[in-house]
Amino acid sequence: MDVISVIRTKRDKGELSPEQIDWVIDAYTRGVVADEQMSALAMAILLNGMNRTEIARWTAAMIASGERMNFDALSRPTADKHSTGGVGDKITLPLAPLVAACGAAVPQLSGRGLGHTGGTLDKLESIPGWRALLSNEEMLHVLDTTGAVICAAGDGLAPADKKLYALRDVTGTVEAIPLIASSIMSKKIAEGTGSLVLDVKVGTGAFMKNIEDARELARTMVGLGTDSGVKTVALLTDMSTPLGLTAGNALEVRESVEVLAGGGPKDVVDLTIALAAEMLAAAGIKDADPAKALADGSAMDVWRRMIAAQGGDPDATLPVAREQHVVTAPSTGVLTRLDAYDIGIAAWRLGAGRARKEDPVQAGAGVELHAKPGDTVTAGQPLLTLHTDTPEKFDYALKSLSEAWDIAPEGTAFTPNPIVLDRIA
Ligand code: URA
C-alpha cells in the first residue's frame, strides 16, 4: 500500500477498497501516514464523498484502532445520547440522571467545546471539585453505583478519530457527512452502549444548517449503529435559536439544576423528556415516566449522587462572572429571530469557549437571554445579558450580535419552530 495511491483514488472520485481503508487508518494512527497526506485525503472525501460500504469500513477501522469497552456486567440496560452540538445545549446534564432514575445505566462520554458550540465537560467543570477524567474502573464504579456517569473518553477509545478530528478541525474538513458520521459512531460503538439516541441539530448554530443534510447525517449514523448491533434512533432538533435561556458553562449548569428541580425553560424540559423517552424505549424499559421522575425529585437525587461521586459538591455556589453588560431591545414588537450562531460566537468571545484545544475557559462567562422567538418585547427592555471576567471583550462580543435578532411590528403572527423536527429510526 502507498498513501499516494489511496489519495489519488478518492481525488479521482473512485471507491476506496476495504484494504486501502484499513491500511490508511492504521498507518495514520501509527504516524506512518503524515498529517499533510491525511489532510489531502480528508479534503478529497469532503469533496467527493464516500458510499455506505466505505463509511462502514472507515468506522470499523477507527474502532479497531483502540480498545472497546464492555458494560455486560451491569445489571441494567445501557442507553446513551449524543448531540451533534449546538448553542446552549445543556441537555446531557438533566438527561443522564433522569434516564438513570427511570432504570437505565447511562455511560455518557462527553467532549469539550470548540468554537461557538459548548462542551458538556466544560460546563460540569464549573462545579467546584468535579472531575472529568476517570479511569475505566472509576467510570464503571460511578455508573454502577449511581446509574449515570458523564466523563471524558479515555485515550484508548478510537485513537484514530482523536488524531483525525484534531486534523480536520484545522484543515476545513469537519463538515463532511461521512467523516462526521464515522467519527461520532466509532466512539459510540467502541464505548459499548447497547442503545443510542442521536440528537442531530439543525439550524444556524449547528453543523448541519438545513434539514436535508441533517437527515442524511442521521440516516448514515442510524445505519452504522444498527449494523453494529446498537439500537440507534435519531431526533432532528431545532438549533436556529439557543436552547433555553443561557449559553455559557456555569450559567447552563444553573439552568440544568432548575430543570432537575422541576422548573426551567420549556424547550429544555420538552427536549429532555423527548430524548429520555427515546432512550428508555431503545433500552427496552417500558412503563417509566420521565416527566414524573423530573417532578418528584428522583432525577435530582441521581444528579447529586453522580456529581458527588466525581468529586463535585452539588451544593457549592457556582462561579459568577465579574462583569455584566445588558443589551436592550431597540424597538417594540414580536421577536421573530434570535440567532443561535451569533449568540454562540458572543459567548465564545466573552470567554465561555476556546479557539484551540488547550485554551482555558471562563466558568462564569456567557450570554443570558431574556426573551425567545415568539415573545413580545418592549423598546429598552433587557434582551440579553453578557457575562465575562474580562470586560475588554464586551465590544468584540457585541460585534457578533449586530444582526442577531429580528423584531417584527407588534401583533405580527409568528409561530416558533417546534423543538423536535423529525425522527429517523
Ligand atoms: N463530533 C464528533 O465527535 N466528530 C465530528 O466529526 C463532529 C462532531
Structural features, described:
One of its GO terms (molecular function) is thymidine phosphorylase activity. With 425 residues, this protein is α/β, with parallel strands linked by helices. It folds into three domains: 3-49, Transferase, Pyrimidine Nucleoside Phosphorylase, Chain A, domain 3 (Up-down Bundle), CATH 1.20.970.10; 80-155 and 173-179 and 188-309, Pyrimidine Nucleoside Phosphorylase, Chain A, domain 2 (3-Layer(aba) Sandwich), CATH 3.40.1030; 323-408, Pyrimidine nucleoside phosphorylase-like, C-terminal domain (Aldehyde Oxidoreductase, domain 3). It has 16 helices and 13 strands. The chain has helices at residues 3-11, 18-29, 35-48, 52-64, 92-101, 120-124, 136-146, 159-169, 177-191, 211-227, 249-260, 266-282, 290-295, 298-309, 340-352, 394-399; strands at 79-83, 106-110, 148-152, 195-202, 231-238, 246-247, 323-328, 333-338, 366-369, 376-377, 382-388, 405-408, 420-424. The chain has a four-stranded mixed sheet, sandwiched between helices. α9 (177-191) runs parallel beside α10 (211-227). The longest helix is centred in the middle third of the chain and has 17 residues, at 211-227. The protein is globular, with a radius of gyration of 21 Å. The model has no long low-confidence stretch (mean pLDDT 96).
Short description:
The protein has 425 residues and is of the alpha/beta class. 43% of the residues lie in helices and 16% in strands.
Give the count of structural domains. 3
- The helix-strand sequence is HHHHEHEHHEHHEHEEHHHHEEHEEEHEE
Mean pLDDT: 96
- State Rg: 21 Å
Q: Which small molecules are bound? A: uracil
Helix content: 40-55%
User: What is the oligomer described by this structure?
Assistant: single chain
Decide which structural class fits the backbone: alpha/beta
Protein name: Thymidine phosphorylase
Family: Belongs to the thymidine/pyrimidine-nucleoside phosphorylase family.
Subunit structure: Homodimer.
Keywords: Glycosyltransferase, Transferase
